[in-house]
Amino acid sequence: MKLVTAIVKPFKLDDVKNALELIGIAGLTVSEVQGFGRQRGHTEVYRGAEYQVDFVPKVRIEVVVSELDAARVVDAVVEAASTGQIGDGKVWVTTIDEIVRVRTGERGDDAL
Amino acid sequence: MVNTGDTAWILTSAALVLLMTPGLALFYGGMVRAKSVLNMMMMSFGALALISVLWVLYGYSIAFGDSVGGAGLLGDPLEYFGLNGLMEDATSEAGGLPVMAFVGFQAVFAIITVALISGAIADRARFGAWMVFAGIWATIVYFPVAHWVFAFDGDDVIGGWIANDLAALDFAGGTAVHINAGAAGLALALVLGKRRGFGREAMRPHNLPLVMIGAGLLWFGWFGFNAGSSLAANNTAAVAWVNTLVATGAAILGWLLVEKMRDGHSTSLGAASGVVAGLVAITPACNAVSPIGAIIIGAIAGALCALAVGLKYKLGYDDSLDVVGVHLVGGLWGTIAIGFLGTAAAPSGVDGLFYGGGVDQLWRQVVGAAAVLAFSFVLTLVIGFAIQKTMGFRLTEDDEVTGIDTVVHAESGYDFASLGGSGSTAPLAGQARAEARNTERTLA
């Protein structure tokens, strides 16, 4: 089993969700996060005082899938989230040792 | 016999002015970081609570009692103690305003003046110390200064020296309210010192929509403040109303223009600040200048205050929410501007320098402004240091970093604190501290 984690631009969330639904993904988790990469932050001015805001808001999407689906999920996210600009985000895949569905106690691929 | 029209307008104005203090709480509250929004608002509500009681007990009497020794410095605190003897209708046959309407109207001036000071000491003052300060400051600074400026001589009553002997013009409180609060804010900012990380960390406003709502409420309430100061529903009130409108509009334009040229952006915080700068400047002058004069006063106030708020970084004092840059500078400008732009055609009927009146009114304005500034600044320094040395005014470094809301009030303003430098760990740290205290208590 694989965990696919994607950090994308917030306004791309709906596109990514729709793309994942189209390839049959049954669930995902979303959180609002902040950070910086090559995009860096921006400057804000309050009563003439300039503040460098280092962290840019992003959305983190997490999907747990079977080993076979991982590549398709990554491709779908990348295609849906891309604008070609700096700051589009990243997608990475990690291996998961175990997964349990809380309601039934099912384990492994059955729990997906 | 009570004049019902006047009385209705003054009671309405008093309620409008009262609303300015919760409005100020929103204006200030939005400007601080998320971890201290509640404390910021509580300083205003604390002033509402305490000053309303002190005003009834002896504040009104110090401000509007017969001048002690006829010196024009302060009224007799015992004459109307507890508003003694003021409940009967004492209006004459010709008609008039019940004294209680005047008592109520002036009470809300005292409250907002004290609340204004709190902006200079955001994030770092112990609440109990603030309340003690508020009571002492109102008693020995505001109530006497209100006597100087607002107490006019009556048939067998002697009033204050600025109003009667100096005859400086201050219609609604450029000196007594704004210069007074601004100078006190500067003194307290010096007593308490800078916030941890001032000038290094980002201390940006956590909720600008709150600031905009607050500025709107202040503007709304200010019509009572200025137009109500005629103490009658008459032509003077109407002139003051229009001047209050147009000076404020011009001040927003002035502030935004400076921002656009200096920073490249016209900001919402700039617009909200321009509102207050314009209102402050027109407060003393709203019955003394023409509507064109009001536009000039407002536009210059907006531009001047937009530049003045940068002073604290250059001079190194942490007047957190710019009480000095807006209220002291705006109050000085508005008060002194009467000496230039006053016109005999306006209700106050005095020509300033630009209208051929020479410098006679100008020097009176300067002396009145300087006297209030010096008196307030020096006494506030004394009160502030006395509280700092005895009960302690400033929070400990730990508590300040954690956030005053959780530490002092055991509350947090929002369920979710943001990551952006607003102290997202504050609730947890506060909880840990509370647990530690409980443990200590159990052990004891």
Automatic annotation (TrEMBL), chain A:
PROSITE patterns hit by this protein: PII_GLNB_CTER (PS00638), PII_GLNB_DOM (PS51343), PII_GLNB_UMP (PS00496)
Keywords: Nucleotide-binding, Phosphoprotein, Transcription, Transcription regulation
InterPro entries: N-reg_PII, N-reg_PII-like_a/b, N-reg_PII/ATP_PRibTrfase_C, N-reg_PII_CS, N-reg_PII_urydylation_site
Source superkingdom: Bacteria
Keyword Nuclease assigned: no
Entries under SMART domains matching the protein: P-II (SM00938)
Pfam families, alphabetized: P-II (PF00543)
SUPFAM superfamilies (UniProt xref): GlnB-like (SSF54913)
Record text on subunit structure and interactions: Homotrimer.
Name the record gives this protein: Nitrogen regulatory protein P-II
